[in-house]
Amino acid sequence: MALKLKSAKKLFIFLGKSVLALVETVVFAIIPKPRKNVAGEIVLITGAGSGLGRLLALKFAQLGSVLVLWDINQENNEETCKMAGEAGATRVYAYTCDCSRKEEVYRVANQTYKAFLPAMIANDHGHLVCISSSAGLIGINGLADYCASKFAANGFAESIFLESFAKGQKGIKTTIVCPFFIKTGMFDGCTTGCPSLLPILEPEYAVRKIVDAILQENLYLYMPKFIYLMVFLKSFLPLKLGLLLGEYLGAFNLMDGFTGARKKN
């Protein structure tokens, strides 16, 4: 009898919390979530010398954050540092760092993704942002190695979020960003078979959406919104229908004209 009462109580608590969660979701779908203030917060940006990294640095400079900029290209990173100062940042620090080399990361800051967490846990404060890709949600032919790395990034970031949640670290936030191709030069030559549903994104638009997702503390951001539907359809569509949809969207020819970013001499 006691066991049945305990199970019933657990079920009612679950149902009550579920209803509240659904109501909250509906409310915030109508009324935008309040944005948090990041003025004075330390924002570390890797790959800050160009592309999204540079644009994110300029955006957070306008928001009054303290910027720590990492990039392998010293000249580009210092240029971003100068631009961030002109954009209104009061404190900006630029460091040359190859984030693919562990010894470089330790040399610059004696910190890695893993080493940030103890301090965040101790203070119950922080926000981890993973710039992944839609290629980490759905496989793309011709991008096997890239897809593998992005699937891994998604899984890692999601696991870190769940570990923080399970330990009751409500002050540690996570945002996982999964965009379609962005016009940063990395995927030069790539095309889309259905620009109305899967447009190649403008960098400025992508950065606005990323910063907004961070300020609203959203866990996931997929761009464009059609990616949400694709992930949903992938979970239940029969294989043949899924492949037909891929053909219709031109998904099997995205990489046909790929040239990649051209390196400067």
TrEMBL record:
Keyword presence, Transmembrane helix: yes
Spans through the membrane: 12-32
Pfam families (UniProt xref): adh_short (PF00106)
CDD domains: 17beta-HSDXI-like_SDR_c (cd05339)
InterPro entries linked to this entry: NAD(P)-bd_dom_sf, SDR_fam
Keyword hit for Membrane: yes
GO BP, one annotated term: retinol metabolic process
GO CC aspect terms: lipid droplet
PANTHER family from the UniProt entry: EPIDERMAL RETINOL DEHYDROGENASE 2, PKSB
Protein name, entry field: Short chain dehydrogenase/reductase family 16C member 5
This protein's encoding gene: SDR16C5
